[in-house]
């Protein structure tokens, strides 16, 4: 009996030890090399299953995300043990994207098309598809969020964490003193193709999906031309699509889908924007944007849906506030043909309104407006109805910004 009690106590002690969190420096079930090996096999299987293609626009978005988030994202630069492979497109009628272990990721061409067309109540119009990047800052932000979400799974090591739990890493750490990597390699080899098959269709947890959304928002905040409002646009479009698919509002439950409901994901992004701006920026699914509790008059424009332009502006104002560059001395007007970000030589008589720190380390493009830098303020104001409305919007935003700074003096 004593031996039995001792054995039970010993095992309970192991389980308690296994339940303790371990630092990221300790080994996961798989080493980085094993993760790449398994991920490469899963990527090969994916490319056998789908028509896959390299897309320059998608790689350019990935390049911008990595350039602006160097401490979280990286290529294979010879300095890191983990890296991201270039994201590829695959053909599918179901808009989706997914991340495999080892930094391999894929986005459905239908997802890109759904994010990149002019939006009208959930429908897409192939005649209105435009090239990504350059001055297409609104649609590109949405595609960038989809990508950033997947890269969040990689940065958060969600696959490694999932397989730690699946194969009992914590218990192995308790027993083998943290040398779980070699055990992971042996089991990975013995599992072989069965492990690869499960990787492709593996579901993330609810918390991992929520965390990946947050990673994606942070990645977008650090890219001058990308807005967290792109996430609002993505969820807004899917909400409209769900209204068409389920007009009675009775959406069937899918217990295998760990993603939160689309409306809740939209609300979380709106809450993120509010909190990151210290409560100064509010936005809702109707496209209403509030700065310091004042409704912003954001005019219509032919090349972007009204609500989606509003989402973009809300996200950029919030990011500028967070970076402490939402002040009069930080404003400039830059022609797209002269801009380092969103460079586009083909749209004359338009300008970016830019907020930047004095040393240029922090930059956010607030919006693209009808403003010709070769003309005076008065000439632009009287040039067209559209130009007048957009200048009026900027005057309102700048006026609210200056009033806030006047009543909330900054510490020097």
Q: How would you explain this protein's 3D organization?
A:
This protein is an alpha+beta fold and about 400 residues long. The protein has two domains: about 25-220, no CATH class; about 225-250 and about 260-405, no CATH class. It is about 50% helix and about 10% strand. The strands form four sheets. A four-stranded mixed sheet has the order 1-2-4-3. β11 (about 350-355) and β12 (about 365-370) form a beta hairpin. α5 (about 135-155) crosses α10 (about 205-220) and α11 packs antiparallel against α12 (about 260-275). The model is unreliable at about 1-25, about 170-180 and about 190-195 (pLDDT under 50).
Which residues sit in consecutive blocks of at least 5 with pLDDT less than 50?
1-26, 169-181, 189-193
What's the average pLDDT?
A: 84
Number of helices: 15
Compute the number of strand runs: 12
How many domains make up the 3D coordinates? 2
Q: What is the multimeric organization of the chains shown?
A: single chain
Rg: 24 Å
Helicity, in percent?
A: 40-55%
Question: How much strand content do the residues show?
Answer: 5-15%
Largest β-sheet summary: 4 strands, mixed
**Structural class determined from secondary elements:** alpha+beta
Shape: globular
Strand order of the largest sheet: 1-2-4-3
Along the chain, the helix and strand elements come as: HHEHEEEHEEHHHHHHHHEEEHEEEHH
Termini separation: 72 Å
